[in-house]
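A quick word before the example. In earlier lectures we treated sequence and structure as two separate objects. From today on, think of them as two lines of the same record. Here is Dipeptide epimerase written that way.
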Amino acid sequence: MSGQPGPEHLDEPLVVVAVRRHRHRAPLLRPFVTAARRTEAVEYVVAEVELADGTIGQGSAAETVAITGESADTIEAALEGPLRAAIQGRTGTIVELSARVAGALEGSTSAKAALEIALHDAWAKALDAPLVELLGGRLTDGLLNDMTISLEDPEVMAGHAREAVAGGEQILKIKLGHDISEDRERLAAVVAAVPDVRLRLDANQGWGPEQAIDIITGFLADGLPIDLVEQPVAAANIEGLARVTAAVDVPIMADEAVWNAEDAHRLVESGAADLLNIKLAKTGGLRGALEIADVAQKAGVECMVGAMMEPRISITAAAHLAVAHPAITMIDLDPPFWFASDEPAGGYTQENGWFRLAGGPGLGLELLAADVDPADADLVPTHPVGLSAGAEPSAAVEPSDPSGHSNPSNPSNLSDPRAGGGR
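And the structure line, produced from the sequence above:
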């Protein structure tokens, strides 16, 4: 099984009669904090595709300026301009229309993903089939999700870890900062609070190669139950990533270093990473993600499907991809559990950490109305126990190691979106 749909479905012609978009702003249940930034609400844009038979599909893209270089404004502009022009009024197969989206403009990977997901949702709905089945997977399969513990004081992180495990979570993803002594205190507090939990550590490009080797070796010597370490060094430093991978006895995952199949080839051929993290906002949608997974499968490399701080539509699409492709054995799809709103209904269920698709045509979601979480709403931030209402946001970390890949959608003129920290 390759994760690719059968030829009888690929040949179905689709007639796109309209492309629309609406913008939303959703509060989080509590602030999400990394070494790079603090998020209390998520700005996102929903893309809609309407077919000639009246079928409507939806996709979404969240504002991720520090990572993809895209704001809600630039996502809207891309959808209203070159992306709409690429497919509105056009007839083609799902592959042909997806290719038109991919080639409509440079960069803008989140905006492309929103429209391409909407196309796939409409395609599968028109065929009255769950998208996962058209991608070659089985609706009944599930994957074990994780829950992210964002960067806080050790006792606060320990409390959040206890809450997560009490709620059924079996794997915790721990965000690390730039002070190793403080990180050791945070990890010690989490492990003391939930000693039987499995840990995934995310350094968000925060270390140099030798530093990463020393830190990871020290964590292992302390007996920490670490499943993997994600992107320990700068995305552009492939040689440094390879040194870390070769030197430590825990799997190293590439995240910000892999955006497309070319990146995946380079990483697996050089042995620079044991694992790859695929995100639709980086790949520009499902087709690019499937290409990465195919590269990994041929090389015998396992993949995770992760996400930015994205809404339910994006996460459901990522889950269909994850369940469909055999190279994808892990997921990091907890963002919707941070959102105050759980709309639109449907898509998936989760119990004791096991994430399963709910079924139904397309993504299996109800359509999200334009008036849900309106972008102009006044939000009252929520503050969990241990975080005062007057706490100052973390300073943004400027990209520091550009690799020369420009993203013209970036309003802040970041020379390389890969240099921004991931979720």
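Notice the following. The two ends are 30 Å apart (CA to CA). We will return to this example when we discuss secondary structure assignment.
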